[in-house]
Amino acid sequence: MRGEATVLHADLDAFYASVEQRDAPELRGRPVIVGGGVVLAASYEAKARGVRTAMGGRQARDLCPDAVVVPPRMEAYSAASRAVFAIFRDTTPHVEGLSIDEAFLEVGGLRRLSGTPEEIAVRLRQRVRAEVGLAISVGVARTKFLAKVASAVSKPDGLLIVEPDREQSFLLPLPVERLWGVGAVTAEKLHRLGIRTVGELAELEAATAERLLGRAAGAHLHALARLRDPRPVDSTRRRRSIGSQRALGSRPRTADELDLILTQIVDRLARRLREGGRVCRTVVLRLRFGDFVKATRSHTVRPTDRTSVVLDVARTLLAAAGPEIAERGITLIGLSLAQLSPADGLHPELPIEWGDDAGLDTVLDSVRQRFGAESLSRAAQLGRDPGWSTPVLPEHE
């Protein structure tokens, strides 16, 4: 035996839509779409009709005309995430957050205190249902990769344990899309080569996979296909970057619309920096053009947590990409703040000078912390769809 299945991957089901159905009983059992212009989330009832995340709102309503479309409530989703992560940490000290709605948990060594990994997973799911009111799917396996695949296969509202002696029989027949890192482009490339299952990829020599897919990607995917994933659950790792993005659909976007979306993303990420006592040195703009080609633009600055500084850099990067956007269109815009470090070296910002951006940030943060994130908005955002992006998970130290 190659070790015990002690890694849990816990993933909330259709998270945003499930929170909406939890809080509004009249929505339960009905198809629910979160977000208007672009689908941020869809309930399983809507997914059964073909609705998918990042789909344009019009296409989604054509597929599911009786869907209930609701505006996103980011504060409600963040509160639900915090409640679930509190249960994770009460289950084991070894928790590695992946996003706002999923995490790895290492439960090895807890057998005498808490029972077998399966018993721990059963209780975890029961607690999330009873205490937070949400369904969560859990995969249990020897490695993080297999646990993540198992939770996905178990959805919705399922539990799947992959014991070491049946890892191959579980993984190899699955489609290559199940491999961590295989997106639409890589899947299409593999399909053209006649490779449709994980087992078919595993049959290749490592050098062949690297030649076909590129050295790094080929080595990574071939290792996963052959059940090699040595990464432990890391509960001490601090995030090196934070980011968020918005899928835009296929319709053309004006420069003003893109600037508004970028401003909304920057506002929230800069506030996240300050809440975590961090500063960033690099601003990274991420774009996906109309032909689905991805591009990044970045710029490094002196360590900062100021909204105005980050926004100026982001706008400059976006302006530089303007000709390509005009020619090719744009379907996604995102921003990452990288090279994070503690803000210990920054001087206190009080007393407040109203002409000072740092003082203004402090005041706005205080108001939003007390009265909610939507209590203050830029004038340009009034009356606009607040469902601007997928939030990132707050840092879990």
Automatic annotation (TrEMBL):
GO molecular-function term, one example from the UniProt record: damaged DNA binding
Transmembrane segments: none
Residue sites binding Mg(2+) per the record: D11, D101
Domain of life: Bacteria
SUPFAM superfamilies named among the record's database cross-references: DNA/RNA polymerases, Lesion bypass DNA polymerase (Y-family), little finger domain
Cellular component GO terms, alphabetical: cytosol
Site (Substrate discrimination): Y16
Cofactor(s) listed in the protein's UniProt record: Mg(2+)
Record: active site: E102
Any GO BP annotation: DNA repair
Keywords carried by this UniProt record: Cytoplasm, DNA damage, DNA repair, DNA replication, DNA-binding, DNA-directed DNA polymerase, Magnesium, Metal-binding, Mutator protein, Nucleotidyltransferase, Transferase
Catalytic activity, EC: 2.7.7.7
Cofactor: record remark: Binds 2 magnesium ions per subunit.
Any Pfam family: IMS_C
Family: Belongs to the DNA polymerase type-Y family.
NCBIfam families xref list: PRK02406.1, PRK03858.1
Assembly and oligomerization: Monomer.
PANTHER family: DNA POLYMERASE KAPPA, DNA REPAIR POLYMERASE UMUC / TRANSFERASE FAMILY MEMBER
Role summary: Poorly processive, error-prone DNA polymerase involved in untargeted mutagenesis. Copies undamaged DNA at stalled replication forks, which arise in vivo from mismatched or misaligned primer ends. These misaligned primers can be extended by PolIV. Exhibits no 3'-5' exonuclease (proofreading) activity. May be involved in translesional synthesis, in conjunction with the beta clamp from PolIII.
Name this protein carries in UniProt: DNA polymerase IV
Originating species: Cnuibacter physcomitrellae
